[in-house]
Specification:
heterodimer; A: 657 residues; mainly alpha; 3 domains; two-stranded antiparallel sheet; globular; B: 485 residues
């Protein structure tokens, strides 16, 4: 099919751009300008050619490439994710011109950034797990230098753990694919469910699925594989944080969606596991964000929490089975919304970082005072994230909430116990409340409270009016504006976007149009907001911050160090394993050597001392008191001679025999 | 037809090598001669591979004949070997620029190439064994090149382990001579069923001894110990061929013994197969683990060779087509990747004098091109797509599942644990080399000559091209495996 050829330019252009950025950056400092051009072209091409492919149902098959062959398709969900990736790349590249200035090495940043884009587009376009893994690995490894970019000690440490998770995750996924392939004989999206039917519900298939999912989950920062995320985001430069948070986590999410829709469609066990992990991730992320005292770390933990919300939707769509339209729309929209929020929030954080090179709450306190554009964009992102009605986050959260409620109704209808799901519903609302609390805390700190140091506050105020470049401002304004516009037109825009994923999940879509602003639905949001207000006023403000003498607030780091999974569990565990592994390996490696040494000792028992001359070209060992007739008995030449005589004898014997 | 032509790739390097002391007057002259003969060798290997077939009996001694013949497998190895030798040879010109013993090195380098080409074109076990011994003896001076006490010890270890392995192989040879119709390499094996069936245990023991012996050259437990000792002492280009090519000589011996002498059907399911599989898996893990703990760069790479070559052996011992493909892919890719890695290490050692891993911090800013090649080689060894190592690992693991049934996961798991360790010991070098951190001082650039850089880049390009497009190689290997399995 001719349309299939459209895939190749879309896929290869980022790699080409990466190369150009590198070369251009070496010769002249044009990498930033070229990157913007290239991101624009990529966005336009994706919008146009991608839409064409999506409408025509184009697929591309490259047999023989990388052994197994690569397969691509562009269904609705894939098109949406690709567009989202290009959009975020465009936004972050536009802002990068200003925000990378402090770090330097712009060409290197764009080189790896475009490699990552190529990887991520490949991930989203993949229609089999092999292709998915190939591009996933490309993405993982090319985004590693982005985390590393600033070169500080924290960045290097964060990049190490990012890389460790990438390697571990990639290999776990590879192992899962080996198992899966040995069971089913295929990895194609369309054929997987059918081929796996004989194995449905067996431990073998669950093991294969879980291993495959582990790699994706670690990239999506699902608990307990999330520990890289709170350190990697603050360490990376702001444009990279927006990408990591907004879209690279979604690549992992796409892997999980692929498994859920292609392999474990309507599988109860898989759905429950996803739901529970999602719930834990949602709450852990929110609690971490509440304790965090660093702007970008808060946003990063919030990403983790929002990933949990999406996972809850993914779990619910598996449980709901046939009537999963509402959960599918909810999770798709939340993916979309979250990328948008994180774009506006991280670019906003990037403005702060570019101006004052600090991210700790106490240092940036009061920076946003008198900066309306920043406040608008940040506020819109925050309101969206909180799920306040009239903003787009409300729509997706309502749909996710509704999906839980619907399942509870379903269970009630069949007369089954609903306790677990009622608990999940309340935890969902609680996590929403925590979101409200930490975003309020962040917003107040940045835009309302005054800095403890008056000189610093004066410095902040002096920057008003010229604290960002027009390009960054445009990104902020547009991203901020999109949130209420989408939120105000749910049926016109949001429902259509949500419906894009129906084909992927083989879902029938929403059974009926949702009345988003009906009292029932507003009630959920209201409960969340009330919980949020309660948490902020009763916990976050009095317990997690201190009162300052002049009436302001101090933000000490109160997160207990003992709860750091990576520091207390993963790193010691790995070190221990490496020690014992090396011990065993050393033992195995030496056994034969010891035996040889023993034999050597027995053979040379009672032999006199030997002399070895330092300047000896012939590598001979001389006995101190030569006893034999040959003077060169200890030399290499003598050994070889003996060997050759023996060898010739053996050959002669063989000839005669 | 044209079978006399097989003499050309076999004898060409030897003739030139022996003439070298008389022809080459100065360094430039030497480089011209060696470069010329290496290029000619690649061309004549390609020529032999594409145009010639048949077999050529040279010399008959009683029951034994020196038989040269070109089958697809041998031709493939011959081209691969000559290619890697050319890369390492051209790289050596800069590496040895201040070395007055380069001429003697070059002589033995070319003689080793002759013995390796002889291995590839050997048509029976007798000539194979002869060339195998020749390879050991001719490559020994390359290990001894530095003439230090340490290199002397390393040379002795190398010689000892090689001869021990060869003796084991010889022991097996006696029995093969008795129990096979012929020791001329026959696809699928030439075991005389009546004789073997009479005393199967003895025949199995003979096969085991032979495989263990040839495995010694390939770094298989328990005869692996020479590798990590000999490699750091040899000069870098010699390490590259030791690791990339000479270990493959052992692998070729194993292929010949399993698939062309005893036959895979005889060994399948026997204790020999399972013992060797266990040894290969143990070696894979052991090599990676010790490489992870090793701080000397070249020694780390040597341990990595121990592990990586055993990947290929694992695939061969599986005795199934998929495993065989995986093994041959692994051999090809490892030869390219390890050559790139050792040559990069050589370039770093030559330019900066750093030999320990800890000294390599920030080296990526001083020698970016070299470290990029190192990076490509590393990522290929770990098995990161789209580089070549990923494809071979995929087939090896698939073979493990096909052949070992419910135990297949064990093989795949060991491969992946080893890949994890490989990432641990190679990527840490990249991390420190490319990203030394903000506070690291900016030191002046170190240059490598265009010729050395060209050799490095060629090896890496091979990795990328074969990684993206392994279909041609796979077709070739499936043609080979069709005849023997």
């Amino acid at each position: 099919m001719d349309s299939a050829l459209f895939f190749l330019p879309l896929l290869l252009f980022p790699f080409f751009s990466a190369l150009v950025c590198y070369l251009v950056g070496r010769l002249r400092h044009l990498a930033g300008a070229y990157a913007i051009f290239s991101a624009l072209v990529q966005f336009g091409a994706m919008a146009w050619a991608g839409y064409f492919l999506f409408r025509e149902g184009g697929t591309l098959e490259l047999p023989g490439v990388l052994g197994m062959g690569l397969h691509f398709s562009l269904t609705g969900l894939q098109y949406l994710l690709c567009m989202l990736a290009c959009l975020l790349w465009l936004g972050s590249t536009l802002a990068a011109r200003e925000q990378l200035a402090a770090y330097g090495r712009v060409a290197r940043y764009h080189f790896f950034s475009f490699l990552t884009l190529g990887g991520i587009l490949g991930v989203f376009m993949a229609s089999d797990l092999y292709t998915l893994l190939v591009f996933f690995e490309i993405m993982s490894f090319s985004s590693w230098p982005l985390v590393q970019h600033s070169g500080t000690r924290e960045a290097r440490r964060a990049a190490d753990s990012y890389l460790a998770f990438a390697v571990f995750g990639g290999l776990a996924t590879l192992m899962g694919l080996f198992l899966l392939y040995s069971l089913t004989g295929t990895l194609r999206f369309g054929e997987l469910a059918e081929a796996a039917r004989p194995w449905q519900g067996t431990a073998a298939l669950y093991t294969a699925g879980a291993l495959t999912a582990a790699g994706f989950a670690s990239k999506a920062a699902v608990w307990p594989l999330h520990t890289w995320l709170p350190t990697a985001h603050p360490a990376a430069p702001a444009p990279a944080s927006a990408l990591l948070s907004g879209i690279i986590t979604k690549a992992g999410m796409y892997g999980l969606i692929f498994l859920a829709a292609g392999l474990f469609a309507a599988d109860f066990g898989w759905g429950m596991a996803t739901l529970l992990l999602g719930t834990v991730t949602m709450l852990t992320g929110a609690v971490l964000a509440l304790f965090s005292v660093n702007l970008k770390r808060t946003l990063a933990c919030s990403s983790m929490s929002q990933i949990g919300f999406i996972l809850v939707g993914l779990g619910m769509q598996a449980l709901l089975g046939e009537e999963n339209g509402i959960a599918v729309a909810g999770l798709t929209l939340h993916i979309f919304n979250h990328a948008l929020f994180k774009l506006s929030l991280f670019v906003g954080a990037g403005v702060v970082a570019a101006q004052i090179h600090h991210l700790k709450l106490e240092e940036i306190q009061g920076f946003g005072r008198g900066k309306p554009l920043l406040m608008f964009s940040f506020g819109m992102g925050a309101l969206g994230l909180m799920g306040v009605p009239l903003f787009s986050g409300y729509i997706s959260k309502t749909l996710l909430h509704e999906s839980i409620v619907e399942y509870i109704h379903l269970l009630e209808h069949e007369g089954l116990a609903t306790g677990l799901f009622t608990a999940v519903e309340w935890l969902f609302l609680l996590a929403g409340g925590l979101t409200v609390a930490y975003m309020t805390r962040l917003f107040l700190c940045l835009f309302v409270e005054k800095n403890a140091d008056p000189a610093r506050q004066a410095d902040f105020d002096a920057r008003n009016g010229h604290y960002l470049r027009p390009l960054t401002g445009a990104v902020l304004a547009l991203a901020g504006l999109a949130i209420p516009v989408l939120g105000l037109t749910p049926h016109l825009t949001m429902d259509r976007i949500g419906a894009l994923a129906n084909g992927f999940f083989a879902s029938h879509g929403l059974a009926h149009a949702i009345a988003y602003f009906s009292p029932v639905n507003l009630e959920g949001s209201a409960i969340s907001l009330a919980i949020g207000a309660g948490v902020y006023l009763l916990v976050a403000r009095p317990l997690l911050s201190r009162r300052r003498a002049d009436g302001g607030r101090l933000y000490p780091d109160l997160w207990p160090k003992a709860l750091d999974l990576e520091e207390k569990l993963y790193r010691p565990l790995l070190a221990g394993l490496a020690f014992w592994g090396a011990f065993a390996a050393r033992l195995t490696a030496s056994l034969f050597g010891w035996a040889a040494r023993l034999a050597d000792g027995i053979i040379h028992w009672g032999q006199g001392a030997t002399v070895r001359f330092p300047e000896d070209e012939f590598f001979a060992v001389y006995e101190a008191e030569p006893k034999g007739r040959f003077g060169f008995r200890g030399s290499l030449a003598f050994s070889l001679l003996l060997f050759c005589i023996g060898f010739a004898g053996v050959m002669f014997y063989m000839l005669l025999a | 037809m044209n079978s006399w032509y097989f003499l050309v790739p076999v004898l060409l390097p030897a003739l030139m090598g022996l003439a070298l002391p008389f022809v080459a007057a100065d360094k430039k002259n030497l480089h011209q001669c060696v470069g010329f003969v290496l290029v000619l060798e690649v061309a004549s290997c390609l020529m032999a591979a594409l145009r010639c077939s048949g077999s050529l009996s040279l010399l008959r001694l009683g029951d034994f004949a020196f038989l040269l013949s070109g089958d697809t497998l041998g031709k493939f190895f011959s081209v691969l070997f000559s290619f890697v030798f050319a890369l390492a040879g051209f790289f050596g010109f800069e590496y040895f620029e201040h070395d007055e013993r380069e001429k003697s090195y070059s002589v033995f380098y070319l003689l080793t190439l002759t013995s390796l080409q002889g291995l590839c074109y050997s048509g029976n076990l007798f000539s194979f064994y002869m060339f195998y011994e020749m390879m050991t003896l001719f490559s020994l001076p390359m290990v001894l090149h530095e003439r230090t006490e340490a290199s002397r010890r390393a040379g002795m270890q190398y010689l000892g382990y090689s001869l021990l392995g060869a003796c084991l192989a010889l022991f097996g040879f006696f029995f093969a001579q008795r129990q096979c119709y012929t020791t001329t390499f026959t696809p699928g094996g030439a075991l005389a069923e009546g004789l073997a069936a009479a005393r199967p245990e003895l025949t199995l023991l003979a096969a085991f001894a032979m495989l263990l012996g040839f495995g010694g050259k390939a770094g298989l437990l328990p005869l692996h110990a020479w590798l990590p000792i000999a490699h750091p002492e040899a000069p870098a280009p010699a390490s590259a061929v030791l690791s990339g090519v000479i270990t493959k000589g052992g692998v070729l011996g194993i292929i010949r013994v399993i698939y062309y002498v005893f036959g895979p059907d005889f060994l399948r399911g026997s204790w020999v197969q399972y013992t060797l599989l266990a040894l290969a898996l143990t070696t894979i893990f052991m090599g990676s683990m010790l490489a992870y703990k090793e701080q000397l760069l070249k020694k780390r790479l040597a341990w990595s060779t121990v592990s990586q070559v055993s990947y290929a052996l694992f695939g061969l011992f599986l005795l199934c087509p998929v495993g065989f493909w995986g093994a041959l892919l692994q051999i090809t890719f490892h030869a390219l990747a390890k050559t790139s890695l050792f040559l990069s290490a050589g370039a770093i050692i030559h330019a900066s004098g750093f030999v320990r891993v800890g000294q390599l911090r920030g080296i990526g800013q001083r020698m970016p091109d070299v470290l990029w090649c190192f990076a490509l080689g590393s990522l290929s060894l770990v098995g990161i797509p789209p580089l070549a190592g990923f494809v071979s690992k995929w087939y090896l693991a698939e073979g493990s599942f096909v052949q070992l049934g419910s135990w297949g996961w064990l093989g795949a798991a060991v491969l992946l644990v080893s890949a994890l360790l490989t990432a641990g010991y190679l990527l840490s070098i990249l991390s420190a080399g490319f990203f030394p951190g903000k506070d690291w001082p900016l030191l002046p650039r170190l240059r490598v000559s265009p010729l050395s850089a060209g050799a490095l880049v060629t090896g890496c390009a091979g990795l990328l091209i074969f990684g993206l497009w392994p279909a041609g190689l796979l077709e070739l290997f499936s043609r080979i495996s069709d005849t023997i399995l």
